[in-house]
Amino acid sequence: MPESKTGFSFEIFSNPESNSSARAGTITTAHGQIATPAFIPVGTKATVKSVMPETMHELGAQALLANAYHLYLQPGADIVDEAGGLGAFMNWSGPTFTDSGGFQVMSLGAGFKKVLAMETDTVQSDDVIAENKTRLAHVDDDGVTFKSHLDGTMHRFTPEFSMQVQHQLGADIMFAFDELTTLMNTRDYQVMSLERTRLWALRCITEHQELTKQRSHRPYQALFGVIQGAQYEDLRRKAASDLGAMDFDGYGIGGALDKHELGTIVSWVTEELPLTRPRHLLGIGEPEDLFVGVEAGIDTFDCVSASRVARNAAVYNNSGRFNITNAKYRRSFEPLVAGCQCYTCTHYTQAYLHHLVHAKELLASTLLTIHNEFFIVGLVAKMRETLLAGTFQEFKTEFLGQYRRPGLTND
Q: Can you give the three-state secondary structure of the chain, one letter per residue?
């Protein structure tokens, strides 16, 4: 879509590694450019927890993603709109993303929260609910009725309403409303859900186009379709083909999937999607998964992991993750991670961070989140750099050769 027409565009630079789908590019929005591949930190309620927006800019974040569901419930999309949009509301001058609310409505409504990539050998059913939980969301062909996790009040999201909320929030990139399934749903339900999401996508486009005309005083907001289909190749390819033919500015790849098959599933989708539009992988942020996504042709990622694990005292480094609460750090006056150039590592010691965590000081979350976000943002930026230089495979081999998966800490 021409930049002169909408203020949104995507340019792809040639990939020197012909045996890979990886690519480097630039997304242009009304509030700035995003050099891709890029990691987009999550600021759920218009804030990356415990970290100032200015600090996120300083550590290298190019854009931030907020959640439509949470901002709709509190403080209300109308208030964000009155403030001038998400960026103005949170004092962030760069590009912003919002998700459709579909993930939170469905996952919180089923009681699973982030636990959607469940074991595939679990007995499948069409009425999936977490153990000892009460269903808070009910889906039909028109939309979803759900109970607020904050106060128990009842609400309803439809494709049209999700578009209305996201237009009020004013993010540069927003996502179509989709139905989220889990790996515990039957294939028959996945097929039905995929058709529902396809029809919702058409409704989102129609409402988006109408709201764009009505709100011409606001910058153009790009709309991304969301590809579902769980772990089924035919369903993923069908969804990508169906939505790829629609008038979307880009695409998000979401839904439940087996992480061990991430590259395969993403490749099914990217092989079907238009080459010239950006692709976003929703909810993926672990280093090894980021490499897999980039190789499969993903341009942007978002995930809460970097900040979430920081609040539990977990620290990323090139050899994996470690926990700063370990006793060996109590008297260690070395930087948090040797050689790291983030603000935390250049100003604070392991002993001090160890103390803050054990003392339950709020500053611990701030300093650890700064480091983790710097690490993940910088890692994807390095992938872009090596893609342009033609050395991505060498970088991947070197990095993953020393990086150990979470759970295998270097303590």
A: CCHHHHCCEEEEECCCCCCCCCCEEEEEECCEEEEECEEEEECCCCCCCCCCHHHHHHCCCCCEEEEHHHHHHCCCHHHHHHCCCHHHHHCCCCCEEEECCHHHHHHHHHCCCCCCCCCCCCCCECCCCCCCCCCCEEECCCCEEEECCCCCCEEEECHHHHHHHHHHHCCCEEECCCCCCCCCECHHHHHHHHHHHHHHHHHHHHHHHHHHHHCCCCCCCEEEEEECCCCCHHHHHHHHHHHHCCCCCEEEECCCCCHHHHHHHHHHHHHHCCCCCCEEEECCCCHHHHHHHHHCCCCEEEECHHHHHHCCCEEEECCEEEECCCHHHCCCCCECCCCCCCHHHHHCEHHHHHHHHHCCCHHHHHHHHHHHHHHHHHHHHHHHHHHHHCCHHHHHHHHHHHCCCCCCCCC
